[in-house]
Design a protein that fits this description.
Length: 73
Amino acid sequence: MAMQLDSQAFDSGRQLPSRYVRGGENISPPLHWWDVPGDTRSFAVIMEDAVATNGRTRHWGYHDIPLDYLDLP
């Protein structure tokens, strides 16, 4: 089974609600993941904007997230 990722803030494939964008509160949406492969050593999460008009698609990233973290609130 493949690792799964979701958010309570929005449905998969939908736009982020306005509170998570620059014109809103500009905060990161909460994320949760599960079904982690057994050989996983750490996590990395990158937030990209597939429709950015300014050429800057990467917004933020975290890396070396420990295995006991399954959420980014």
